[in-house]
Amino acid sequence: MPFSSSEKLPEKFKIERRVRTVEIGDLKIGGDHPVSIQSMTTTSTADVEKTLAQIKKLDEAGCELIRLAVPSSEAARALSSISSAVDVPLMADIHFNHRLALKSLEAGIDGLRINPGNIGGRSEVREVVRACQNRGAPIRVGVNSGSLEDEIREKHGGPTAEAMAESAARQVDFLQELGFEDYLVSLKSTDVNTNTAANLIFAQKYDCPLHIGITEAGFGRSGEIKSAVGMASLLSRGVGDTMRISLTGDPVREIEVGRKILASLGERSFGPEVISCPTCGRTEIDIEKIAAEIKKALQNFSSELKVAVMGCSVNGPGEASQADIGLAGGRGTGLIFKEGEVIKKVPEEEMIKALLQEIKQMECD
Ligand code: SF4
């Protein structure tokens, strides 16, 4: 059972799409820029200390854009202390109250997530758009299947993909009428197929960057799997420029899962990737333990190597021939191999050390 390559899927298998670039702080989204990973704080934004502590953790985990809920004037005021203390770009999440959007911009926020349809009338939207233009802050138009306009929902008989795409189109067209093009769009449903269809419909008509995610994906493994399926169905078609994995719980996990999804699709690399065989009746070593040990040892390595951990010396090297390097162990012996060719035979208890030495050498070469 050979491993499949994690190289980026060739463009010919994706839908044709040319995407504009939008800049939020120093993060570029769209164009030829890599798909970025973002998250949202779960602390009360008004609690500056706790929010800064969570932002620090997210930043360290590799989060590239952080969204904060701004439900009150107190939260909007806190943004000034928060934004001046961090380097990672910040986006304020505003519902219903355009004044909070204006205050967030005054406080130095890098971008806004609003739904132009629910923050007031046309004049309020115009005011927010003008303030964004003055500050060079983009807007993310966030369409959610759970909060569509009644009229659109009725027209389509529910929160369908077409209804979501129409809602997004309507809001974007209004921004365009105001001469504002510095926006990106998200269309999120908790249903994977609706989510995919809505984004595909919209992506074929508009050239703005798309923020993708499955809303209310849930928690734990089921939320992670649902998100991975939803993101893969879009990214493998070339749709999606920035992504949030919405999981209940510690947002740092969202970054870990997001990175794993992007690395699995060959979209980005975050250091060496450890792959391992599924094990079978021929397995002669404790694969899970060894793979975990190697993964930990490689945490601070920067290369894009694919490292295989295989459970038997008979089939291991061949099955992992698409890995750059790997080990296969059993019966007291460890084999170190590169691209399927055995380069070293060592006692089993020394194989991890021998593998790590080879990897270090490859990083230096
Ligand atoms: S133990 Fe050997 S044959 Fe079995 S899955 Fe692993 S590498 Fe393949």
UniProtKB/TrEMBL annotation:
Enzyme class: oxidoreductase
Listed InterPro entries: Dihydropteroate_synth-like_sf, IspG_bac, IspG_bac-typ, IspG_C, IspG_TIM, NO2/SO3_Rdtase_4Fe4S_sf
Domain IspG C-terminal: 273-361
Residues that hold [4Fe-4S] cluster according to the record: C277, C280, C312, E319
Domain IspG TIM-barrel: 20-258
EC number(s) given by UniProt: 1.17.7.3
Cofactor: binding details: Binds 1 [4Fe-4S] cluster.
Entry's Gene Ontology molecular function annotations: 4 iron, 4 sulfur cluster binding; 4-hydroxy-3-methylbut-2-en-1-yl diphosphate synthase activity (ferredoxin); 4-hydroxy-3-methylbut-2-enyl-diphosphate synthase activity (flavodoxin); iron ion binding
Cofactor: [4Fe-4S] cluster
Catalytic activity annotation: (2E)-4-hydroxy-3-methylbut-2-enyl diphosphate + oxidized [flavodoxin] + H2O + 2 H(+) = 2-C-methyl-D-erythritol 2,4-cyclic diphosphate + reduced [flavodoxin]
Gene Ontology biological process terms, A to Z: isopentenyl diphosphate biosynthetic process, methylerythritol 4-phosphate pathway; terpenoid biosynthetic process
Pathway: Isoprenoid biosynthesis; isopentenyl diphosphate biosynthesis via DXP pathway; isopentenyl diphosphate from 1-deoxy-D-xylulose 5-phosphate: step 5/6
UniProt KW keywords: 4Fe-4S, Iron, Iron-sulfur, Isoprene biosynthesis, Metal-binding, Oxidoreductase
Pfam families: GcpE, GcpE_C
Family: Belongs to the IspG family.
UniProt function note: Converts 2C-methyl-D-erythritol 2,4-cyclodiphosphate (ME-2,4cPP) into 1-hydroxy-2-methyl-2-(E)-butenyl 4-diphosphate.
Protein name: 4-hydroxy-3-methylbut-2-en-1-yl diphosphate synthase (flavodoxin)
Organism name: Halarsenatibacter silvermanii
Gene: ispG
